[in-house]
Amino acid sequence: MSKPDALTELGEMLGDRFSRSKSDLDLHGRNETYFPFLPPEAVVYPETTEEVAKIVRICAAHGVPLTGWGRGTSLEGHALALKGGISVDFSRMNRVLKVHPEDMDVVVQPGLTREELNRELRATGLFFPVDPGANASLGGMASTRASGTTAVRYGTMRENVLGLEVVLADGRVIRTGTRARKSAAGYDLTGLFVGSEGTLGLITELTLKLHGQPEAISAAVCAFDEIGPAVDTVIQTIQLGIPMARIEFVDAATAAAFNSYAGAEMPEKPHLMIEFHGSASAVAEQAESFGQIVADNGGDGFSWSSRPEDRTALWTMRHNAYYACLGLRPGATALVTDMCVPISRLAEAVEETRADIARSSIPGPILGHVGDGNFHAILLVEPGNAAELAEAKALAHRMVERALRLGGTVTGEHGIGMGKLGYMEEEHGQAWEVMGQIKRVLDPSALMNPGKMVPGN
Amino acid sequence: MSKPDALTELGEMLGDRFSRSKSDLDLHGRNETYFPFLPPEAVVYPETTEEVAKIVRICAAHGVPLTGWGRGTSLEGHALALKGGISVDFSRMNRVLKVHPEDMDVVVQPGLTREELNRELRATGLFFPVDPGANASLGGMASTRASGTTAVRYGTMRENVLGLEVVLADGRVIRTGTRARKSAAGYDLTGLFVGSEGTLGLITELTLKLHGQPEAISAAVCAFDEIGPAVDTVIQTIQLGIPMARIEFVDAATAAAFNSYAGAEMPEKPHLMIEFHGSASAVAEQAESFGQIVADNGGDGFSWSSRPEDRTALWTMRHNAYYACLGLRPGATALVTDMCVPISRLAEAVEETRADIARSSIPGPILGHVGDGNFHAILLVEPGNAAELAEAKALAHRMVERALRLGGTVTGEHGIGMGKLGYMEEEHGQAWEVMGQIKRVLDPSALMNPGKMVPGN
Ligand SMILES: Cc1cc2nc3c(=O)[nH]c(=O)nc-3n(C[C@H](O)[C@H](O)[C@H](O)COP(=O)(O)OP(=O)(O)OC[C@H]3O[C@@H](n4cnc5c(N)ncnc54)[C@H](O)[C@@H]3O)c2cc1C
Ligand SMILES: Cc1cc2nc3c(=O)[nH]c(=O)nc-3n(C[C@H](O)[C@H](O)[C@H](O)COP(=O)(O)OP(=O)(O)OC[C@H]3O[C@@H](n4cnc5c(N)ncnc54)[C@H](O)[C@@H]3O)c2cc1C
Question: FAD-binding PCMH-type domain spans which residues (chains A, B) (predicted)?
Fold first, then answer.
C-alpha cells in the first residue's frame, strides 16, 4: 500500500485530530534555532496509548516515518520530520495519571509539561526538579535526557525516570521499570529509552521520582573579575561536599543581556548564581561556607535573597537567559552549543571558548550549569547570512573538538538531533555501531524519527 | 573446529594463566548459596583487555561459551558456567589505573574489589560508596547492578558508573561514557551493560564516581516492639527529607543472630541501624530530628556512636549478617531472597513475609536496606534435605509474587542469575522479549554467560 492510503486511514481513525492544515504543518516544521523549515506530511494528536499503538501499526504497514513532538523546544532539530511522514504531537496526552505522595512518585502522560506538573504537585509538598529553561514536555525531556539548573543536586532525567510505557516500531506496547526505587531485574530498558530521542519507540507514559520541597531555600549572586576564580569557586565548593541545589555561571556578556532584558543591575563581569536547599540551619551553614570560598577567590557583590519573590525573579531571569541573549542582537537566530567536561578542565574550556568567540565577528554569551561541567555559548547570527552561520558553525565545531580533547562529551544535555549526528563516531568510536545494531533490531524499517542518532540511519 | 582446539589455543596463549586443575574448576563451579556444583571446562586469568579480546575471539571461532568471574559472591548462581565453556576470572586485572581527585572519579580494572579500592583511596579524602555485604569485585558489582547499605544516599552501581570498556561477543572492544558528569550523546550503553550480568560482553575497565569522605558521621541503633513502627520511622524520615546515609532494618531473629555471632547485646526485637553523613552541625541536627521520629513511633534503646571504632563495629556486624544468620543453624545452606517494593508497601511486605516464614518449618531472619524498600529473608535449609529446599523455594516464590503484587521488583539488587530467570516474563511482560532481541543482536551465537537473563537464551 502507499502513503496516501496510510494518511486516509489515519484521518478516518482520528477525525479532527488528524491534520494537514498549513498552520499545523508550519508549526511542526519549525525549530528553536537555525535548522531549516522541515514540515511533516501530517500531524496526529493521539489521546491514548491504544491510539498511539494503532497509529504506529498503520504507519508500519505503509512504511510511513513517525517523529514524536513534545513541545518542540529541543535545540538540535530533534523533532523535525527529516524523512517526511507524520509528526505525533503529544499535547493532548497531558494528564497527571496518579500521584503517590507517600512513595514520592507520579505517573504522567508524555505531553504534560514540567511547569504543569509542578503546578499540580504544589499542594503535596513535593516537586519534580528537572528544569530545562524551556517549559518542555516530560516525554520530550525523557527523550533528550534533559537536565537543567538543578541536575547538580537532583540529577538529570536519567536519574529521575523510574519507568516508562513505550510503543515500539511494530506496535507492541511495553512497560519498563517498576515503582520500586531500584531493581536489578535485567537490562535497564528505562535507561535505554531515556535519551533515545524517539528513535526506538514513542513514550506514552512516565513514572517519575519526586522530591520534597525543601524546608528552607537560599539563593545568591556574586561577581568575579575573571572566569578562572569563578570556576575555582565551583570546584572548591564541590570538593568540600557543600550540597548545592543549583550553581550557574554567566559571563560578562550574559550579565549585560540580563541588564537590558530583565532590568537587572549586574556589573558586566562573570557571575555565579547559586541556591541551597535544606533545613534552615543547614542552608545558613552552607551559605556561610560558600561565602568564605567566594571571598577566598576574590568574588564580590555577594547578595543573598531568601525572600521567595527575589529568588523567583533570579531564576526567571536565568531561565529566560536564552531570550535575553537573543535580545543582544534583535532579529538574530541562535546556534546554541552544549559542551560538558570533567570539572577540572572547566576553566580552561570556558576560557578557550571565550577567547575563540572574541576572535570571531559573532556575539556569543556563555552560560552554563557549571556544577556538572556543562556550559553553552549562544552564538548570534543574522538570519540568512551564510558567512556568519558558517563562522558560528566553525566556532561550535571547535567547542565540540575541545570537549572531546578535554575528556568530555559533545552534548551535556541538549542531545544529538540533526546538529550533533556528525560527532557520534568521534565520541563513541565502535560503540556507535552498537547503537546502530540496537536501533536496527528494534526498528528494522527505520520509521521512528529516521535520519537521526545512528549510523546509516 | 572443535572445543579441544579452542582450549589448546587458549593454553598456548596464556601458559599457566590457563587452568584445568581440579582446584580451579572446583572453585569456579561453586556458589554462595543453594545452586548445584557446576564447574567450567577451564579457567583463564587474563591480564589485559587485549588478552580478553583474544580469548573472546578464540571462543567465538570455536563456539565456546564464556562466563565472567569476579569474586563469585553473587547469590543467584550468576557466575556458574551453566552451558560449560570457560570461566574468565578477572582477579589478575585488579589495578587502580588512574585517580582523578579533582574530578572525583577513578578508573579501575574489573577484578579490583571495593575494599581494595577504598584502601587505595584513603589518602585522597574520597571514597567509593557502593557496598554489598561481600568484598565483591567492581566488575561483578557493575554486572549485577549491585547496591548495599548506602544506596539510599549515594545510589547503586547504576548511578556510580560513569563509563565502561567492554569486550563484545565478537571481540570488538568498545568504550561507553566519558569522564563528564552527564551526557545526552545517544543511547545509554553504560546503563545497558550495568546489570547485564556478563550476557552482553565482558567489562574490562570501569570509570567510577567517587564521593568526599564526610566531615562528620554519626550512627545509631534503636529497637521497636513491632515491625510496623520501625518501617513507619523510615517512611517519615524520608518524607521529611532528612538525608540518611544508611538505614538498615533487622528483625528479631537477625538481632538474635548478632548476639550469638558478634557478641552484641541487642534485645530480640526489630531494630533500625542508621547513619548520617555531613558537617558536624548538620549531622547533629539530623540525628536530633531522627531521634524525635523514633520516639514518636515508640522506639527505644536509642544509642548513638560517633566514635569511629563503634561505628566500624556496627557496620562490620551488619556486613557479616549473612554469616551471623548462617550461624543460627550450623551447617545450613541459605536461600537468600531479595524483594523491593514502593516504600508505602514495605511494612505490609515485611509483615506478610514474617508471618509466612513463621508458619513454615524453616528459620528465616529478615533484614534489609529499607530506605530503598528492599529487604531479604535468609532461609536456612539443611543441605541435601529436598523437602526443606522445596519449602524454602515456595516461601521465596511467594515473596516474589508479593513483590510484584505490591508494585515492586523480583530483585532489588542481587540480580537474576539462575534463580530469578523464571520471573522475568512476569515482571517485564513483552519488555522481556526486547531484552532477548538486544541479546541476540549483540551475541547471536549465545556465548556470553549463556542460559541466563533472556528468553530462549
Ligand atoms: C530557552 C531554552 C532553554 C533550554 N534549556 C535547556 C536546559 O537547561 N537543559 C536541557 O536539557 N535542555 C534545554 N533546552 C532544550 C529543550 O528544552 C529540551 O531538549 C527538552 O527536553 C525538549 O522537550 P520538548 O517537549 O520540547 O521535546 P521536542 O523538542 O518536542 O522533542 C525532543 C525529541 O524528543 C522526541 N519526543 C518528544 N516526545 C516524545 C515522546 N513522547 N516519545 C518519544 N519521543 C518523543 C522528539 O521526536 C525529539 O526527537 C532548552 C530549550 C530552550 C528553547
Ligand atoms: C554476604 C553477602 C552479602 C551480600 N550483600 C549484598 C548487598 O548488600 N547488595 C548487593 O547488591 N549484593 C550483595 N551480595 C551479592 C554480591 O556481592 C553481588 O552480587 C556482587 O555484585 C557480586 O560481585 P562478584 O565480584 O562476586 O561477581 P561474581 O559473583 O563473580 O559475578 C556476578 C555476575 O557478573 C558477571 N561478571 C563478573 N565479572 C564480570 C566482568 N568483568 N564482565 C562481565 N561480567 C562479569 C558474572 O559472570 C556473573 O554473571 C552479597 C553477597 C554475599 C555473599
Answer: 36-213
What are chain A's domains? Answer: 3-89 (3.30.43.10), 96-212 (3.30.465.10), 216-405 (3.40.462.10)
Residue B7 three-state SS? helix
One digit per residue, the tens of pLDDT, for chain A of length 457 reads 457 899 999 999 999 999 999 999 999 999 999 999 999 999 999 999 999 999 999 999 999 999 999 999 999 999 999 999 999 999 999 999 999 999 999 999 999 999 999 999 999 999 999 999 999 999 999 999 999 999 999 999 999 999 999 999 999 999 999 999 999 999 999 999 999 999 999 999 999 999 999 999 999 999 999 999 999 999 999 988 898 999 999 999 999 999 999 888 899 999 999 999 999 999 999 999 999 999 999 998 777 777 888 888 899 999 999 999 999 999 999 999 999 999 999 999 999 999 999 999 999 999 999 999 999 999 999 999 999 999 999 999 999 999 999 999 999 999 999 999 999 999 999 999 999 999 999 999 999 999 999 998 6
Within 8 A by CB and 6+ apart from A342, the residues are: A373, A406, A407, A408, B100, B103, B105, B179, B180, B181
Distance (Å) of CA A104 to CA A132, A179, A204, A378: 21, 10, 21, 36
Residue from B74, B192, B413 to probe ligand 2 pocket by mutation (most atoms less than 8 Å from CB): B74
Of A179, A341, A430, the CB nearest to B172: A430
- Strand intervals (E) in A306-408: 333-336, 339-340, 366-369, 374-381
Do the Cβ atoms of B261 and B380 come closer than 8 Å?
A: no
Q: Kindly write down the DSSP assignment for every residue of B196-218, as one continuous string.
A: STTSSEEEEEEEEE-EEPPSEEE
Instruction: For the sheet with B201-209, list strands across it.
Output: B96-100, B105-108, B201-209, B161-168, B173-176
Q: Which residues in chain A are closer than 8 Å to B105, comparing Cβ atoms?
A: 342
Helix, strand, coil fractions of chain B, as percent rounded to 5: 40, 20, 35
Residues of chain A by 3-state class (helix, strand, coil), percent to 5: 40, 20, 35
Secondary structure of residue A84 in the 3-state scheme: coil
Q: By the 8 A CB rule, do B392 and B335 touch?
A: yes
Residue appearing with cell numbers 508479593: B402
**Could you tell me the three cell numbers for B192?**
545497558
Contacts B407 to A, Cβ<8 Å: 178-180
Among all residues of chain A, which has the CA nearest to that of B146? A184
Residues in chain B within 8 Å Cβ distance of A181? 340, 342-343, 372-374
Chain A nearest CA to B116, separation (Å): 23
Mutate to test the pocket of ligand 1, among A34, A73, A157, A319 (most ligand atoms within 8 A of CB): A73
